[in-house]
Amino acid sequence: MTVLDLRLAAFALAIGSVAGGCSSSSPGKASSGGDGGGGDGGATYPTISISSPMSGATVTVTKEPGTEEVVPVSFSTTNIMLMAPGSCPMSLGPTDDSCGHVHLLIDGAACTPAGQPYNNATPAMAGAAPSPVNAIVTSCPMVNGAHTVTLELHHDDHSSLLGADGKVISTQVMFTASGG
């Protein structure tokens, strides 16, 4: 084998290593909507998805103790520990992407109580199960009818958790409420 052959073999090995580093078997970072974008070395962002109600479903409004009329929204997350706002471990810091909570919006801000930044948040208190979260339709101008619920991931300090595309990591579902 000549010196030139050794150099070509080393060059081919280096090119193979670089090409292999361009693709990754680890999941990409999820962007808003959870589309799994990437382009940042394969690090992963948290994701969120709604399992119930199904898109387009007609759901029955339930009455909570007191006066709230609600629609339970079941969801799941990946790559994030959900805790009550302000209760993530101090060692993580208030804007660490691995700990936070969910803000729920109905019809954008149309069903947000006056003076509040969102309709509901979860988990509401330390130790509470995060899912399902109640969409409080009592706050809507019309309880019965079509609604769009959006779930957004937020840091411990309530700042938005952004995906690779720079948008809030979120998911939404459209349904029709009845019985309210």
Report Rg: 22 Å
> Helices and strands: which structural class?
mainly beta
Superfamily (CATH H level) name: Immunoglobulins
State the CATH topology. Immunoglobulin-like
Q: What number is the mean pLDDT?
A: 79
Envelope shape: globular
CATH arch. level architecture = Sandwich
Series of secondary-structure elements, N-terminal to C-terminal: HEEEEEEEEEE
Explain this structure to me?
The N terminus is likely disordered. The longest helix is centred in the first third of the chain and has 20 residues. The chain is globular and about 45 Å long. The protein has about 180 residues and is mostly beta strands. The chain has 1 helix and 10 strands. The chain has one domain: Immunoglobulins (Immunoglobulin-like, Sandwich). The N and C termini lie far apart (about 85 Å). The strands form 2 sheets. Strands 2, 5, 6, 7, 9 and 10 form a 6-stranded mixed beta sheet that branches. Strands 1, 3, 4 and 8 form a 4-stranded antiparallel beta sheet that branches.
Give a brief description.
The chain contains one helix and ten strands; from the N terminus they run H-E-E-E-E-E-E-E-E-E-E. With 180 residues, the chain is mainly β. It has one domain: Immunoglobulin-like (Sandwich), CATH 2.60.40.10.
How would you describe this structure in keywords?
single chain; 180 residues; mainly beta; Immunoglobulin-like; six-stranded mixed sheet; four-stranded antiparallel sheet; globular
